[in-house]
Design brief:
Layout: H1 2-25, H2 30-36, H3 40-69, H4 73-93, H5 97-128
Helix pairs in contact: 1-3, 1-5, 3-4, 4-5
Length: 129
């Protein structure tokens, strides 16, 4: 369970690094136009906003990676929760697919993180008895 939770959190972090690259560096390129269904004109007009959004995705990835490296449950729970809330908000205000691309994978990772912590805590408690 612990390995699965680690892998899922790492995948979510990598996904957000991918979002960072798309929004900060590929927004004004054909891959960005295709990914976000935009035109070159719209992309040019919204590039600064996209870069800002990409930076936020980078912060989310950094928080998750910090949580993994430091084995810090609170960091993982906090940043996964932020991603879930952002995904729900994005689904309600921008595009429904964000719910499945961003929020659902983060929710799955959060469930595994919490189950792994519970399993580890229970295992430690039973060993102490």
């Amino acid at each position: 369970m612990k390995i699965a939770s680690f892998i899922l959190v790492l995948l979510i972090a990598m996904l957000h690094i991918y979002f960072l690259v798309l929004e900060m560096f590929l927004w004004n390129h054909p891959i960005g136009y295709k990914t976000f269904a935009t035109t070159p004109e719209f992309a040019a007009a919204s590039a600064t906003l996209a870069m800002n959004q990409g930076l936020y995705n980078g912060f989310l990835a950094a928080g998750l990676i910090f949580g993994l490296v430091k084995k810090n449950l609170s960091f993982k729970v906090f940043f996964l929760s932020c991603i879930i809330v952002a995904g729900i908000f994005g689904a309600l205000t921008a595009k429904m697919s964000i719910l499945f691309i961003q929020a659902a994978p983060a929710l799955l990772a959060l469930i595994f993180v919490l189950l792994a912590d519970k399993y580890t805590s229970e295992k430690c408690t039973s060993v102490e008895k």
